[in-house]
What we know:
By secondary structure, this protein is an alpha/beta fold. The chain contains 14 helices and 13 strands. It has helices at 13-22, 58-65, 85-105, 144-162, 184-189, 209-220, 243-250, 259-271, 279-287, 294-298, 308-319, 326-337, 340-343, 355-365, and strands spanning 3-8, 28-35, 47-50, 69-72, 111-117, 167-173, 175-177, 194-197, 203-204, 206-208, 231-235, 241-242, 254-257. The strands form 4 sheets. The chain has a 7-stranded parallel β-sheet with strand order 3-2-1-4-5-6-11, sandwiched between helices. The termini are far apart.
Amino acid sequence: MGKVxxxxxxxxxxxxRFVRRIQQDPGVDRVIGVDAVDPPHRLGAAEFVxxxxxxxxxxxxxxxxxxxxxxxxxxxxxxxxxxxRTAVKETNVIGTMQLLGACQxxxxxxxxxxxxxxxxxxxxxxxxxVFTETTPPKSLPSGGFAKDVVEVEGYVRGFARRRPDVAVxxxxxxxxxxxxxxxxxxxxxxxxxxxxxxxxxxxxxxxxEEDVIDVLxxxxxxxRRATLNSGTFNIAGDGVLTLSQxxxxxxxxxxxxxxxAVRWVxxxxxxxxxxxxxxxxxxxxxxxxxxxxxQMRETLGFEPxxxxxxxxxxxARSRGPGLLPPEAVAGAVDxxxxxxxxxxxxxxxxxxxxxxxxxxxxxxxx
Length: 366
C-alpha cells in the first residue's frame, strides 16, 4: 500500500492547494482532507471528512483510514468565515492537543508535520540581528497568534518525547506572501495608505506560497539522501526588505504614527473590519524579525525558488497599482540619495568665467 496522508485545515487556500499537489506524488495512495467547514474550492480526488479537530472524533478518522502521515496546517492567525479570535485560538491550541492525543494512540502514525511560524521568536527592541532555531526569544509573545504557536510547539515537543518512533517535523514559516495570500500582513499591505511606527523601519522576511507547498511535500515524505526532515526548521526566502522598501514597491504612501498612538490606530482598524492590526503585528512592524535559514538548506535540503524580494514582488503584482507609481517613487528616492548634501560630497566649485571681473579689468586697461 502507498501512504495515507491526512491534512487538516483544507478549507483554507493553502490547505486546498497542498491537498491537490500531494495527490500527484508517487507513493501516495490516498489523501484525506479534514476541516470543520466545507471547503469552497476543489480537492481533486482527495476524500473530504467534515470533522472538528477540537473534538475527540478526530481519533476515529485516523483509525478508520489507517493514516500514517499527518500534515497539520490548521494553525493560523486568520479567522475563517464568521469565526472570531476565540474560535481561532481554540482551533490552534485545543485542536492541536486533540489531534496529538489521537496521533499518540494511533499505531499506524509514522510521520507528523506541523505548520508553525517565526512568530514564536516574538519582536522586541533587544532581539538579535538573526534568530536561529535554538535562539530563545528575548520576550515571549504575550498574546495572539504568536502565543498560540508557542503553545502548539510545546505540545508537539511533548508528543515527540512520548512517541519517539514518529518522525516529527515543525516548519516555522516567515510571513507567507503570494497572489493567494490571506494573512493579516497581506491585508495590511493591501491598505491604500500604510500606517507605520514613527522612527522605525523594520526588516522583514517573506516566503512565497509556492515554496510553502514544496517544503511541506519534502517534510511529508521520507528524507532524501544526505538530508533529515525531522526537527524544527526556519523557512524563509533569501534576503530581507525594510518596510519602507515594501511601501515604495507597492506604490502606497505611509503615514508615520507615534508609537503610543499606533495601538489606537490598530483598534480603530480592527473595529471597522479593515484589517487585524493586532498588537503582535504592531511589534513586528516596529522591531521587525529576521531568521537564519542555514538548517533549511544544510539539513532539510530545501532551496526556495523565490527570494524575499521576489515573493513580495509577486504579491505586489496581484494587488494592483497603489496611489503612487513605484517607478516614480524609486526614481525620486534615488535622486535624493545621490544628492551631495546626503552623500557628504562637497559641491563642485563654479568654474565658469567671471565676465564681470573681465569687464572691469578691460575698463581699467583702457
